[in-house]
Amino acid sequence: MYNRISMRTLSTGNRISSFWSSKKQDFNRDERGLVSFMVTLIMMLVISLIVIGFTQAANRNRRQTLDRQLSAQAFYAAESGVNDVVKTIRTNINAGTPVASQSSCNGSDYPTTGSLSPDGSVKYTCVLVKTTVPDVRTTASTQSSSVVHLKLSQEDGSNLPPTASVDLSFTWSVANSASPDPANCSTAGIFKKNDAANTCGYGLLRVDLMQANGGFSGAQDLASNTMTFYMQPVSSGGGSGGVSSFTGATKGVVVPAVCSDASQTCKGTIVLSASALTPLDYYARISTLYRDTPSVVVDAVNASGTDAWFTDSQARIDVTGKAQDVLRRVQVRVPLQQTGTTNLPLGSLQSSGDVCKRFSVYSGVTAINSCP
User: Fold this and answer.
1) Which domain covers residue 280, as residue numbers?
2) pLDDT at position 137, please?
3) Minimal CA–CA distance to 227: which of 203, 199, 202, 251?
4) Structurally, how many domains does the chain consist of?
C-alpha cells in the first residue's frame, strides 16, 4: 500500500518537475527573443540617426553652396549698378552737366535695372548717390601722387558760414606689413634715413595745398597760392600747423602728426583761415616719403566744432544688388574732377596735348633742339 502511494507520489512529482522544466525553457526562449528585439531596435535607431545626420549635412552644404552662388551674383549685380552710375557721371562731367544726387532708391537720375538674368532673379534694386561727402578718401605712395579737390561746404552743399578758422585734417594708415607702434618713429623735426634703421611704419605725408579761389593769372600767382606741408609721424605728442594765409613766404612747413598704435593711423592738422574767401576751395596733391600708405582720409571741422563737408570733390555711390532672396551692398567713391591717382612719377610732366622735346649729346656737346 505504502509502496504504491510512494510510487504514485514519485510519479506525480516527476511530472510536476518535468512541467516546470519545460516552462523554464519556454521562459528562457522568450527572454532571448526580447533581447534580440531590443538589440535590433537600438541598431535601427542608430542607423536612422546616422542617415538623418548625413541628410542634414548634405542639405546644409547644398544650401551653403547656393548661398555663396547667390551672394556672388548679388555682388556682381551691385558692381554692374556701380559701373552704370559711373558711366552716367562721366558722361555728365564731359558734357558739363551738373552731377545729380539721389537719396531715394526710386530716383530717376540713376534708375535701377529691370533684370540682369533671363529669369529676372538677378538685378540691382537700389541706387543712392551723394555728391557732398563728409570726407575725401584717396591713397598715396612714394612713386606717384594723388590730387583731390577740397571744396568745403555744409551738408547741403552751401558755403560754410563765416568762421575764424577751419581745421583740415589728414589721416593716413600704417604701411602694409609694418609695425604700427609710433615709438619706432623719430621726434619732431628729425627725419630718419630711408634705410633699414628706419623702423617707423608710417610714411611721411607730403601735402601740396593750393588755394583755388579766383583762378590764376600766371605761374607766379600759382606758386604764391601753393604751400607744401610735411606731416611727420612722431614718437610722442603731435600738433598742428597753423597757417592763416597763403602768401608764399613759407614753402615747407613741418606738421607733427599724432599717431596711434590702436587705430594704426597718424593724423596731421592744418589750420586754415576762412577770412573773406568763400567758398573755401583748395586742391591737394598728396604723396608720401619713406613708405606707401594704403589709405588717406581728409576731413574738416570748423571753429564751432561741427563737421564741414566737401562738395564737387567726390561722389559716394551706394548700390544694392539682389539675387533671389540674397542682398549685397557696395559703396565706392568717384572723383568729380579730372584728378585722382596718377601713375606718373612725381617729377614727370603731364599735359593734355602733345609734348615734344629733343635732347642731343655728341662729341662732348649738349644741345636742346626745338621740335619741327
Assistant:
1) 134-305
2) 92
3) 251
4) 1
